[in-house]
Design a protein that fits this description.
mainly alpha, Glycosyltransferase, 2 domains, two-stranded antiparallel ribbon, 14 helices, 55% helix, Chondroitin_lyas, Alginate_lyase_dom, signal, lyase activity, lyase
Length: 372
Amino acid sequence: MLSNLINKANKALKNDSVYSVTLKPQLAPSNDPHDYMSLARYFWPDPNKPDGLPYMRKDGYSNPEIETIKDYSLLRKLFDDVENLGFAYYFTRNDSYVEKAVYRIKEWFINPKTRMNPNLNYASFIKGQDLGRRTGIIDMRPIYRMLQSIPLMRSSRKWDHLVEKKFKIWLSKYYFWLEKTSIGIDEKESTNNHGTYYDVQAIYLLSYLGREEEARKYSYEALINRVNEGILPTGQQPHETKRPTSWYYSTFNLQALFLLAERSQYFGFDGWNYVGPEGQSIRKAVDYLLSFALSNGKGWPFKNINGFEMNNFVKLLELAFVIWPDDKYLEALVILRPKAKLEQALEYKDTEWEDNYLCIWSLMTNRQLWTC
C-alpha cells in the first residue's frame, strides 16, 4: 500500500506540466478562458443537420471528441495528485510533497493567469447550445478525495495557510453557485447517480468549509432520501437499471451510496444499516448485484451494452465485508478478484489493484473511507 502510494506521489512531484483551464484550444461561449468546459459524453453530431448542430444524444456511447478539451482530465489529475501527495506526506513526513500540493492548488484555484472561475456553467456542454448541463456537476465529483488529504498536510512547515484561506474563498463561491443556480438545483433534484454524487460533493464541501452542523443535517437527510427513492425492496436501483449501461451505473451509484453512508456515520447516524419503509437498504443493493456478479451477469433483466465489469464491484465487496462481516462476501471475493485482475491485465481498467488497500485500511482503523 505504502509503496504504491509513494510511487504515485513521486510521479506527481516530478510532473512539471501545467494544469489549467486556460490551455484548451476552444473557449466556452462566454469567451472567458478561465471558464471550465467539458463536452457532453454521450452526444454526437446530428447527421440530419449540415453542421451537425446541435449535437444529439446516444446514451451509453461515448464520443471520443470529449478528449479534445482537457479541462476534465486536468481537473481529475489535480484531485489525484493532491490526494496522493497529502497521504504520502502523512506517512513519510516528506515536506516536498506538501510543497507540490500547495503549488497545484495555487495553480488551479488562485493564480490569476491559470485559475478556474468558481462555476461549472459550461460543464457537459452540448455543441450548438449556449450553456452546459446540470449533469456536468459530476465532473467535480472526486473533489472529496482532495479535501480529505488537505488536513493531513497542515502540520508541515511547507503548508501555506494563506493559500488555504484563498482556496476556501474559492470553494465558498463555488458552493454558492452549486446551491443557488438553476443548474445546481436541477442536479440536486436528480433521482439517479447524479443526485447522489451531488449530495456527496455538497457534504464534503460544507464540512471542509467549517459548516459542520449543515453537513451533519445534510448527510442524514440525503442518506435517507437516496435509499428510500433510489433502491427497491429487492435491492435493484431502478434509476440506474434503465440506462443502457445498467450494470456500470448500478455499481457507480452504489459507490456514492457507500460514501453517503460513511459520512452519515461520521456525523452520528448509522447509514450503513438504515432500512427504508419498504425494506430498502444499501446492503440489499450490494446483495442484488452480487448474485449477478457470480453468474457473469446471467439472467440480468435489463439492457446492458458494456458487459459486467468486476473491478469496481469487487472494491465495494471488499468494503462490504469490513462493514458487514458476512462470509459470503469473502467467499465471493475469492471468485471475483481474479476476474477483476484479469480485466486490469487486459487494460479494461487503467487503475491499479493496490488502489483499494488504503481505502480498506482506513475503513478498518477508523471507519472512514479516506480515499474510496
